[in-house]
Every structure is written in structure tokens, then in C-alpha cells.
Amino acid sequence: MATPELPRPTRATVRDEWSTRNDIVGTNGKVTIRYAGRLYHLGIGRAYGGKHILMVITDNHVTTSLKETGEIITEHYIDTSRNYQKPYWQ
User: In the chain, where are the structural domains located?
Assistant: First the structure.
């Protein structure tokens, strides 16, 4: 008895690539991330120095929240022509 011919599996297309990152804000209020093979400095704010944060990175958009409370504290859109990234809002 022959088994029926099944379609070959295909790879699902990924629409948005995203990642998460846990970090601690430096005493200067900045964190460093690598994007497209380069290091970028994100300004979070000196008030958050030493705080544990969670960053959700979707393409060039970074959303930063406090790890303890989940409160979103800032967002960044990475401009590859600049090393230091100002917050989109804070």
C-alpha cells in the first residue's frame, strides 16, 4: 500500500524580526545596543540609572520598560547615521 504524496514543508516567512534584551541602565542614563553590526547608545535618562530594564527591539524601533513594573519609560527609533540616539518620547 503506497502512502499518499504529501506537500513538502516550506519555511514560514517572518514579517517582523524582534528580540528582547534585559539590561541595567548605566549611571550616566544610557544603554548600549548592537544594531546592524554597530554599537549605538540609547539615552534612557539619569533618573533610571542602575534600574533593570527590558528592551523589545523590532527592526529599528526599541521600546524600553522597567523590568519590575512593566511601565514603558521610553521609545527609540534607531537612526543609523547617528551614534547617540535621543528618545522619541520620555
Answer: 18-85
